[in-house]
Write a structure and sequence with these properties.
- With about 425 residues, this protein is mainly β.
- It is built from 2 helices and 21 strands.
- A 16-stranded antiparallel beta barrel has the order 4-5-6-7-8-9-10-11-12-13-14-17-18-19-20-21. The protein has a two-stranded antiparallel sheet with strand order 15-16.
Length: about 425
């Protein structure tokens, strides 16, 4: 009953007119200076310089945009409301669940300024968007300088350019959320500096990113001397393949295929999953990371597949904490996933995914093999700006599993 009501509300929210007509643009009239304002007036019959007009536009899916001269500011917000049901089998570590909650609630401010400068600020307000041991609303805050096509700079807190699915926004996923493989083996946000180009040599095929980060995750002050170094390259074989969203909602007739690879080295991190997880009490590990991906899009059909590998230099550290002996384990592992989707109509997408995550060597005993298989039905009322997604997954952990049903509505203002 809840899901039927949910779908009815979303259908009612679809505007009668196309989204391109949903905007309202307000352009204030130019203000002439008063005669006594100390501004010299032009001689009679001669037109003086016209003051530049500021523009304010409001458009559904594009937020509020203010533009004056070379300055442009854009404010957007989005919310994801999710219904979750979990049905564990006997012996599973999962618990039976029925929940309704706000999965994400975000505000994003982007700015463009003279001298090829731009900025990106994103704040998150849902508790699941924050780390349990260090809650913080700041997701992104970075400044970008793009003086050259082949060399640009980004400084601040951002996603580490290492893989494709983690870098794609959670607003533009084919499923309710990312793969369990990505959840375990990705490199999350960190504070650092990236040198990059989205169009190396101007051919529309090659992009790269080289970064150095703190290595301890989101806005954390590390007590060790190690840093995180990352590198990523991506090559589109034919036409450029958009890697900022999953699926092919535009149903572009061009065949697009891209290959990507990433590598990273994190020195002396105190977190189990390199940049993620509750910090260790005594341990610090060196991790080596690698990833590879293939991305295909054509006429509404899409394929995304990715492989990850993470290896620690040592399996465990034993020491004394509060007068007692303590052993803490690193978390080495590898995994891969593949997801295939297609648009049946301009507003209906079906997709399926399989993923497999496995531990490597004498790693953390709590790290078990996890496999996922499932599918999704997406009602894309206004593409990713207004959509209702329903996915069903079987999650198997060391032979004991659970059935997971999720329904999620997203509104992107």
């Amino acid at each position: 009953m809840f899901f039927a009501c949910f779908a009815a509300v979303m259908l009612a929210a679809v505007p009668d007119e196309p989204v391109a007509d949903a905007g309202v643009e307000l352009v204030p009239a130019a203000i002439e200076p008063a005669p006594d304002a100390g501004v010299p007036l032009a001689p009679s019959g001669v037109e003086g310089p016209k003051p530049e007009q500021a523009q304010l536009s409001l458009k559904y899916g594009e937020g509020v945009t203010f533009k004056s001269g070379d300055v442009k500011l854009n404010l957007r917000g989005r919310v994801q409301v999710q219904a979750l049901s979990v049905f564990p089998t006997e012996g599973s570590s999962a618990v039976r669940q029925n929940a309704l909650f706000v999965r994400r609630a975000r505000l994003a401010l982007k700015g463009e300024f003279p001298w090829k400068l731009s900025m990106n600020l994103q704040l998150a307000f849902a508790n699941l968007d924050m780390e349990a041991d260090a809650p913080n609303v700041l997701r992104d805050f970075n400044v970008q300088w793009a003086p050259l096509r082949d060399v640009s700079f980004r400084l601040g807190q951002m996603k580490v350019p290492f893989d494709v699915q983690r870098v794609i926004s959670s607003s533009a996923q084919q499923f309710v959320d990312r793969s369990t493989v990505t959840g375990e083996l990705n490199l999350d946000r960190d504070v650092g500096l990236v040198v990059f180009s989205d169009d190396l040599f101007g051919l529309g095929h090659l992009r790269y990113a080289l970064g150095v980060f703190g290595g301890d995750g989101r806005n954390r002050i590390g007590t060790n001397v190690g840093l995180l170094y990352s590198a990523r390259v991506r090559y589109s074989v034919f036409s450029p393949c958009d890697d900022k969203l999953e699926g092919d909602p535009d149903r572009d007739p061009r065949f697009r295929i891209a290959f990507g690879a990433g590598a990273a080295r994190n020195i002396a991190t105190n977190r189990p999953r390199s940049t993620i997880g509750t910090p260790y009490k005594i341990a610090a590990f060196n991790y080596t990371h690698a990833s590879g991906d293939v991305h295909v899009k054509w006429r509404g059909f899409s394929l995304l597949s990715e492989i990850y590998w993470r290896q620690a230099d040592t399996d465990s550290v034993t020491g004394t904490f509060n007068g007692a002996q303590l052993t803490e384990y690193s978390r080495s592992g590898w995994g891969w996933f593949a997801q295939l989707g297609g648009y049946i109509t301009p507003w209906l997408e079906l997709a399926a995914r399989y993923g497999d995550t496995q531990p490597l060597g004498a790693t953390d005993p709590a790290f078990k093999r996890v496999r996922e298989v499932g599918g999704t039905i997406n009602l894309m009322f206004l593409k990713h700006d207004l959509k209702l997604q329903t996915d069903l997954f079987w999650l198997d952990e060391a032979g004991k599993g659970r059935l997971q049903l999720r329904v999620q509505a997203q509104v992107f203002f």
